[in-house]
Every structure is written in structure tokens, then in C-alpha cells.
Amino acid sequence: MHVFVTGGTGTIGSAVVAELLRNGHTVLALARSDASARTLKDAGADPLRGEIADLDVLRAGAAQSDGVISLAFSRDYSDPGTLAQAVAQESAALAALGNELTGSGRPIVTVSGTPWVPGRASTEADPLPTDGPVGGRGRSVNALLELASRGVRTSAVRMPRTVHNKGRGGFAGLLVDQARRTAVAGYPGDGTQRWPAVHALDAAVLFRLALESAPAGTSWHAVADEGDAVRDIAAVIGRRLGLPVEAIPEGDFGPFGPIFAMDQPASSARTRDALGWHPTHPGLLEDLENIQP
């Protein structure tokens, strides 16, 4: 396939681009800067200059491709306003991409988060939350999946709270950044809450499998670690950085504080059985050993 990818230079996206190219696909990838374009060219992809807000560019990329993987999302989490703006931007982009593919039978794979279910690990059958700080993402993903009835092979890969590679990325990465700023390896709540995790290279394989074979209107879980206790995550961070490990107020984590404090394990049993996905890379706690002091 000739695949149009947005967000192709991020932690997940760069791994997805490499995975697609390694398996015989060609890639056209959105590039918002000259530096991004060079990175994509060096990786073997063709860049298409534009940003996620450039809906005409997104439609043009989808129109000339056999399938789409949509990963672009702003990483500015500084306050609730910028987060809401990022969610609205992503929603408009998904609508534009989906409408361009309507009636074509071509696939589009988007990204969302694993839901949280009180008292148990969430599964692929559980609905996404449609309220709260990121509820808009759930609504836009649901709208995209509904395009299955309009001739689009839609699917969503639900990512855990931490997508990591070489000790960086995801919620655990935000804990590392916070620890460096404050000189404390902090965690919200009592630290027993669990976060699921996946290595970026394993997640990339699942995006490819979904693109190639996922039935229309389906959701999948890119979960390798069902749930690591946040206190254990902070303990590795503290040891690697030589910092004390302490509970701190969830408000210190900004708009994601309430989410950080939730127990949110997730299962990928159905994904592994149905798509033959088998993670092979290091788990989160092992990978955090790559943090440099």
C-alpha cells in the first residue's frame, strides 16, 4: 500500500513509518517543518508539507493514498485550554480524512486511549469515555468508526498511558520530566494505581496489522504491560535520577492530574488472538533503566 501518515515523526509515528517501510509499504507523511521533512526523507518516506490544521492538505494526502494512519496530536498540555484546542483540531482532521475516504473501501487507522473501568482491566469491547478532559477524543474516534457504514474500513488502535522507547515517552515520560524540574520523583495518590504501557516498536506493528487486515469499525488495544503501579514507575525514575520518591498533589501534574491518579489497567487479549499481535520488546520498568541521570 501507499500509506498517508500524519504525526510521522513522533515517538509512535517514527516507529510506524519504519514498520511500514520495512514491510513493503510506501509512505507519504505530513511534515509541518523543513526539519520534519528532512527527517522523513532520511527515513525513506515522502514528505507532504502542512499541519494537522491544514484540512485541504490532509484531504490531498488521503486522496493519493491506499490507506491512512492518523497519529498527529498536539503535545502542548500546558493548560486545559491548549488541550481542548488540540482535541478540537484532531476531531476536524479525522472528519476531513474520513470524508475523503467515504465510499472507497480504503482503510484508515486512528489512535485513541485505552478506557478505564472501575475494578477491572478494560477490554477492546469497553466504550471510550466521551466526557472529561479528553472526552472529545472519544467522540471524534467514535464518529470515525461509524464511517464503516459509509464504505470506509475504519479502525482504532487504543494506546496505553505510556508508549515508551529507550526510557522516554508517555505518562511515564511526563513523570521523568516533572522529576527533573522539581528534584522529586513524584506520583499522585497512593501510587498503587496502575498504568498500562507498550513499547513504541510493538505498537507500530499493531498499527500495520490494523491497516492491513482489521475489519471495519473495530477497536484494538496496544497493551503489552497490563498495569504497572505508578509508585513502582516513580521508584525506577527516582533511582535512575538519584532523587527522592514521594507522593505529591495531583494538581501538580496540571490538566492530566485527575487521569494520573486513576487506576486504569487494560487488557489486549482479544487483539493478540484476532490480529496475531505479540509484543517482543522490553516492558516499561525495564525500559526506564535507560533513563540517563
TrEMBL record:
Record-linked Pfam families: Epimerase
Q: Where is this region: Disordered?
A: 115-136
CDD domains in alphabetical order: SDR_a7 (cd05262)
**Gene Ontology, cellular component aspect:** cytoplasm
| Gene Ontology terms for molecular function | aldehyde dehydrogenase (NAD+) activity
Domain (NAD-dependent epimerase/dehydratase): residue spans on this chain: 3-215
* Stored Gene3D superfamilies: NAD(P)-binding Rossmann-like Domain
Entries under PANTHER family matching the protein: NAD(P)-BINDING DOMAIN-CONTAINING PROTEIN-RELATED (PTHR48079:SF6), PROTEIN YEEZ (PTHR48079)
Q: Which protein, by its recorded name, is this?
A: NAD-dependent epimerase/dehydratase
